[in-house]
């Protein structure tokens, strides 16, 4: 229920033969249906059916003609036609009782009844996609009967209650009513509706993973429930937890925490029993009303009862049934016998094509014994439903029954091709499966839904559980779970190949939708009766999905299991290298840089070397080096990166090669080797552009465009190009924003945009970038950026005069150190020392700058040595030690010049010149500062250059010396 939008380029226009009806235009030559100029996705063979009906509008088109057009030369059960016709009607929004476009002619065929105009019209080459026809009350998969009062009641309750649970027996229609109520309530949900289908999981430990996946939370969420609560806290959403009875303890814990939180969001749960929270408002969903036995009713009178109305609608839908007065008593008896349960009624109605109502009454009485009262005179509804499913199952042919059982292995929606693959092991051929799918849909044992240009099928929860029990008792189905795992393996191995060419948004939608079956297959493969080798292959195949969608916490647990098993079973070194690399990256984004990360990367390097695979050797070396950079081990990182670049095959365009070049240039910048770093970063920045297409190649180009701008801006700033640095950083942030690359954007913010904004004194940019990072952390919970965001937010408050912010700066730095996120920690501490100086807290400033210098020397981060020496000199000046301060400034200036850091040289010269002026050495101060200032060609509005300019103007406008020595105030615009 979550929607995503994307910008598409408008194409050129061409003249095409077009059929127009209502707001639609049908373009046969392009196989295109347009709604208000935007394409509508049609499922299955719906386009062929619509084209034939439109071209023969007003005429009866027989079932045989339609099937010949959609499935030429193929014999299929006519239920396949009904499934596809239903899908077509839904795409047209034509699901009301009185059709607007397609009318059914009982037992004969269909007729297109809307006015159609044929013309030659202009059609764009690449129009933007449209959603199905918007209606005042959007239809669900099927129309709802007899629940209008409950729907309104639940929507009203949600306005006044944060947690509403819809409780009732299986098959009573809880999900249908909940979704309908949610749509009614939707206008009050500023941030939309999120539907979590808990029927796709059976393990309560997966509750958090299912929740964060549905909410779209990415990253390394150490605690799924906490991440979900953090995500919901600022939002006004409706969260639907469907089928909670499978994972009731986990759902109850979450609901309890949700209710104690301050979120304005609402929780709507469906369950066979209440969750039991203190303020839960429970709505009991009852049966559909049905007439009592023995009443002589007419058709109109009988149809006033929702149970009868549902039975008649479903019977007419699948069997062209015409309700007559003579059937009223029998239909009423069926509905009463089935206890008014909607699903049971639909199952019975699906048999009308085979039995008439009177025969159905006899069968129900004979086979199910519904007329035999229980202790309280009423059969338990769950038993009624199970008995009805069992009765429907026994009416299936042997092949249909076997297929029904086999389909229970799927946790979520599946394609016909998936069913064919699984059913092959039980001796069913493709025609058996395709025909059987249509028959099971017609008998309401299986649902069908549109998915892109095809149909996908799904068992309802109650029918899936019944089918699974039947499958366990059928020896022919013994291999079903293995076949399912093999099917999922084939699917995700195909996803790896398609990742290289399929449009990223389409790829993600296609394969993220299969994550429930991935979880099921992995659980079986690593279980007692499973296949560890198959599970290892499946884990490797799933790495791309986890990486692309940043589902890191779930990936980490699976990867650890697979890697441990890979050491105990026969497994090649390359898959182990892939597992270890993926594990290293999943740990890389954890809150704390643990030693497990180093173990994973070293294992990956060893596996890749043994496998003789250059690409994965590079990947592992680069990944390990990024880890080393994060924990402040710059020399070690350079050693491994030099090995990685030495492996490069320059004739191949390996991502790992360019990443190795970039990482080495970055590491050398940290080591103060700016002259070696800058040319490489400039070359990479010039190599990659902002591609405008939507292919994977274009996406990779954009990714590399962004990543090189993680590193280049800070180097450019140090070398005296503050405007260029700020522009590069903003380009990276904006490019990531346009592409929805939230992890990349967080990296660009934390590594480039925020530091550059802080160092150049652009407080408006600093504020905007901190807000962006904060929003990103709600989308993609990358734990390591949390204290970084807190640090820059506190710095902003400090620079705007909040005296309490300095304590928050220190707390954020302490958290970074505790997390071992030590890269740049020396410069962070220097900022804290300057903040202390502005408050006159000299002793604390001295202690902090001493720690900063120790970190810088220990970590080999020479890039900031001169800046730390400058801040240390400021501390010495404030402490009344001017001689030592001057000596330290001269050392700092020599260091800045040695590495080519013009910005630091300017800062140091400004401070040193101010000190010389204060001690009567004005000419010497001018000779020092003026040449350095004149080297700059940009950035004249930044505080660094403004401070230098003002000092030069003051020196040139004041004749003679400056008198006796006095302790100067800080000349640097950002403080000492």
What features would you highlight for this structure?
disordered N terminus; elongated; five-stranded antiparallel sheet; alpha/beta; 976 residues; 59% helix; 17 strands
Describe the structure.
This protein is α/β, with parallel strands linked by helices and 976 residues long. Helices cover 59% and strands 8% of the residues. The protein is built from 42 helices and 17 strands. A hairpin with a 2-residue loop joins β15 (447-451) and β16 (454-458). α19 crosses α21.
In short:
This protein has 42 helices and 17 strands. The chain is of the alpha/beta class and 976 residues long. Strands 4-3-2-1-8 form a five-stranded antiparallel beta sheet, with helices on one face. The protein has a five-stranded parallel beta sheet with strand order 10-12-13-9-14, with helices on both faces. Strands 5-7-6 form a three-stranded antiparallel beta sheet.
Question: Per the principal axes of the C-alpha atoms, what is the gross shape?
Answer: elongated
Q: Give the N-terminus to C-terminus distance in angstroms.
A: 54 Å
Determine the fraction of residues in helical runs and give it as a percent range. 55-70%
Q: Uncertain segments of ≥5 residues (pLDDT<50)? A: 1-12, 126-141, 370-379, 961-976
Note the quaternary state here: single chain
Which whole number gives the mean pLDDT? 86
Strand tally, please?
A: 17
Beta fraction: 5-15%
Class from secondary-structure proportions:
alpha/beta
The gyration radius over C-alpha positions equals 34 Å
* Biggest sheet strand line-up: 4-3-2-1-8
Number of helical segments?
A: 42
Q: Characterize the largest beta sheet: strand count, sense, and whether it forms a barrel.
A: 5 strands, antiparallel
